[in-house]
């Protein structure tokens, strides 16, 4: 079992042990920006712990102490599922590992599950400087130093309180993240010797465990000086230099629980901030919804505009075509008018020529009748000129025929 406060090296240690041959499950939560090599947490286990905390009106980032022993009746309905889950995690595996920082504040519950399965786990307690944890949590969650230190105290002391019954055994090992990174061989030796794990792949452990696992350091982030920070720093130093004893745990636990009003107030402030943030998120979400609706409306208008533009283009093309036809019709009309004018003029000229022809015809007919009358006349004086011209004409015709 690997437990300890978030950002205290639990993932690094679990990853190294996983590389060395410890099986942490088949459905592990994947890597993330704040944990690039992975969390090595079984997804179902994390979900189960979140449900347990929710049933106790808490979350992973609730800083107020949780009296899990008095709250155990509220978690009774989860025991059967927890037993089945634990059986699944350790079934047919010579060496299984379980890692989730939430276990730190739920030790009494999981201890009952282990007892029900007649399993006695080894415990690796990961610790890290409270200020370095605060720096890392600030980078990831933007928690204040006071909030992070309060969480560090809760996870560390809840874990120690839950393990009081096995303090006199060799089943607990405290691992300081900073020291273990500086001396990984010693950390590996402590684990293999302390827990009798001689079959681990030591080189794989060392290859995984390196300085690149550090995400933040104490120097990167200022810390508050207050009762919580002072208590956390003193406890951290005690865990580094003193053996785990019941007196040490009870002394620090009593001092920690005496600060409950301050911690509860801190939770209340953060809850209020979260409510404000939630209201802001709802307001932003509403604005985004309105923006989406307006964008959708604008998109609809744009489609209508495009459609109207297409209609306009078609109408323009039709208008241009009709104007072209109109120009051709006007040209044809002008030509027709010109033809009509020419025809009218020609008709008038034809009528005039016809009238002149008729006049000449009438004159010729009149002359013919006059000549005919003269020719038929018996009066010599009257018909002599005609007979004279007739003889001349006949003579001319005769000469023409001779020629």
TrEMBL record:
SUPFAM superfamilies: P-loop containing nucleoside triphosphate hydrolases. This is Glycosyl transferase, group 2 family. The keyword Flavoprotein does not apply. Residues 284-342 form a coiled coil. The keyword RNA-binding does not apply. One of its GO terms (molecular function) is transferase activity. InterPro entries: P-loop_NTPase, UCP029407. Keywords: Coiled coil, Transferase. It comes from the Bacteria. It comes from Luminiphilus syltensis NOR5-1B.
């Amino acid at each position: 079992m690997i437990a300890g406060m978030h950002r205290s090296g639990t993932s690094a240690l679990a990853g190294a042990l996983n590389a060395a041959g410890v099986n942490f499950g088949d459905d592990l939560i994947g890597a993330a920006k704040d944990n690039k090599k992975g969390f090595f947490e079984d997804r179902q286990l994390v979900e189960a712990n979140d449900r347990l905390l929710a049933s106790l009106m808490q979350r992973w980032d609730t800083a107020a102490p949780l009296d899990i022993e008095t709250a155990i009746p509220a978690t009774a309905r989860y025991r059967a599922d927890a037993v089945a889950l634990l059986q699944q995690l350790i079934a047919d595996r010579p060496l299984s590992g379980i890692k989730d920082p939430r276990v730190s504040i739920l030790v009494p519950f999981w201890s009952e599950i282990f007892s029900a399965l007649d399993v006695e786990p080894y415990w690796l307690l990961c610790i890290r400087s409270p200020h370095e944890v605060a720096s890392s949590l600030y980078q990831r969650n933007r928690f204040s130093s006071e909030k992070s230190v309060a969480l560090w105290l809760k996870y560390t002391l809840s874990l120690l309180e839950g393990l009081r019954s096995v303090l006199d055994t060799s089943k607990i090992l405290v691992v300081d993240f900073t020291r273990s990174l500086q001396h990984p061989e010693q950390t590996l030796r402590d684990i293999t010797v302390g827990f009798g794990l001689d079959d681990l792949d030591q080189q794989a452990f060392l290859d995984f465990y390196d300085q690149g696992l550090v995400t933040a350091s104490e120097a990167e982030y200022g810390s508050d000086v207050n009762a919580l920070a002072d208590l956390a720093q003193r406890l951290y130093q005690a865990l580094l230099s003193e053996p785990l004893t019941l007196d040490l745990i009870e002394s620090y636990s009593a001092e920690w629980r005496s600060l409950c009003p301050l911690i509860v107030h801190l939770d209340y402030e953060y809850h209020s901030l979260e409510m404000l943030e939630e209201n802001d998120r709802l307001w932003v979400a509403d604005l985004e919804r309105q923006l989406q609706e307006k964008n959708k409306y604008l998109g609809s208008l744009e489609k209508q505009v495009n459609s109207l533009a297409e209609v306009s283009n078609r109408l323009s093309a039709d208008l241009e075509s009709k104007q072209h036809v109109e120009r051709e019709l006007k040209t044809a009309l002008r030509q027709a008018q010109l033809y009509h004018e020419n025809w009218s003029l020609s008709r008038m000229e034809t009528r005039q020529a016809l009238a002149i022809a008729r006049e000449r015809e009438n004159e010729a007919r009149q002359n013919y009748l006059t000549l005919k009358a003269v020719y038929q006349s018996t009066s010599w004086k009257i018909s002599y000129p005609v007979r004279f011209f007739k003889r001349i004409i006949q003579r001319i015709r005769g000469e023409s025929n001779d020629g």
